[in-house]
Write a structure and sequence with these properties.
With about 170 residues, the protein is of the alpha+beta class. The chain has seven helices and five strands; from the N terminus they run H-H-H-H-E-E-H-H-H-E-E-E. It has a five-stranded antiparallel beta sheet with strand order 2-1-5-4-3. The radius of gyration is 22 Å and the shape is elongated. The mean pLDDT is about 85.
Length: about 170
Amino acid sequence: LYVRGALAPVLSWLASLPTTVLDETPILWLIYAEALTTAGQSTSVEQKLQAAEAALRASRALLDRVGRIAAIGGWALDFGSGECHWSEEIARLLDLDTEASPSIDALVQALGSEAGAAMRAALALARETGAGWDVEWPIETRVGGPTWVRSIGEVEDEDGRHTRVVGTMQD
């Protein structure tokens, strides 16, 4: 932007945006900070970015602590890509390897044969119909032995397609 002479108009446009617009679209704060850095300027944007990062860290720490206290974790599966994510509490609850790449197969396998089969059926129905679930399953973990988990799943839709499922498990 600087080389092509477009930096000044970009900075002018970003500076003209109300703070509420910048706050609603955090990537604009990052673009603004990058443009200011490129131009060799500094303003309160850097301070706001640092404050936003600190608030994000505090929010994450609170969420992690609440999950640990309540023994509840979350996971998500993208139906299109098969990409799976889970929280540290899910890994702890199901004795999953925290260093391994999350996969729905590992999650289902950790539930055991009965609950794993029920989870696969719930996922298939969710993908096909968009139906969620709220069930309790008996599981047996490697470390903790037999227990019950409550599982809740909710499907996200995009353009009329079931694209993702987000779920929780609680001991």
